[in-house]
Amino acid sequence: MVARMRTVEPSHHILVVEDDDEIATMLVELIKDHGLRALPVRSGAEMDKILQRHPFDLVILDAMLPGEDGFSICRRLRSAGTIPILMLTALTEDIDRIIGLELGADDYVTKPFNPRELVARIKALLRRASYGTETSERKPLTKMTFAGWVLDPRSRRIVDPEGAEVLMTTSEFDLLLAFCHNPNQILTREQLLSMTHAGTAGPVERSVDAQISRLRQKIEPNLKEPIFIKTVRLGGYLFAANVEYLP
């Protein structure tokens, strides 16, 4: 199963994985009312069949599904590609949100949810996946390099010093982009949350720590002694790298 993501389309297509017919119908109608397309499926198995035939721009994934649960599905989707994932669940504990984010979800909304907030989050994820973060739009959209790594905000590609492309989720790329635009500066969790969620109400602050952990796994040579993303006690994080813009 390969989760494919399209770049820019006149009308984004969203896959809703929700076993509750009433909620699924409400979500599809809400999404369509805002000029987007949506298709509901009831399980991970149905999702796999659809993704093999059609590309989607975002997946809304219920965590509490019968059979294979949403957390397991999220892990599979993330290992297969970088399609944005918004998890939807009745679970309200912070640890559940953090687990979802650690498994690769880009955002997390709890039921009952405010329809306007949900739509805002959906549009923020689609905007970030297609164009980059609000922060990046205020900066030159030119390639950047640090320690042999090359980051391209326009194509949203990151290449390691050996020339291999490193796949990143929307949130991971946005986080690295925020760091590259603010090297050698202490950024609080609130600042990082704002930069990577484009002004929408984001998940709990500890979710930033989960995103940092995932990003470190992809760029740090030694996770026990990070050389790029430094933790600043009682402050936040600092990106210890010399970043240069490429011509």
From TrEMBL:
InterPro entries: CheY-like_superfamily, OmpR/PhoB-type_DNA-bd, Sig_transdc_resp-reg_C-effctor, Sig_transdc_resp-reg_receiver, WalR-like, WH-like_DNA-bd_sf
DNA-binding region: 141-241
CDD domains on file: trans_reg_C (cd00383)
Domain Response regulatory: 13-126
The keyword Transcription is assigned to this record: yes
GO cellular component: cytosol; protein-DNA complex
Modified residue annotations for 4-aspartylphosphate: D62
UniProt-listed Pfam families: Response_reg (PF00072), Trans_reg_C (PF00486)
Annotated keywords: Activator, Cytoplasm, DNA-binding, Phosphoprotein, Transcription, Transcription regulation, Two-component regulatory system
Top-rank taxon, per record: Bacteria
Domain OmpR/PhoB-type: 141-241
GO process annotations (BP): regulation of DNA-templated transcription
Subcellular location: Cytoplasm
GO molecular function: phosphorelay response regulator activity; transcription cis-regulatory region binding
Protein name: Regulatory protein VirG
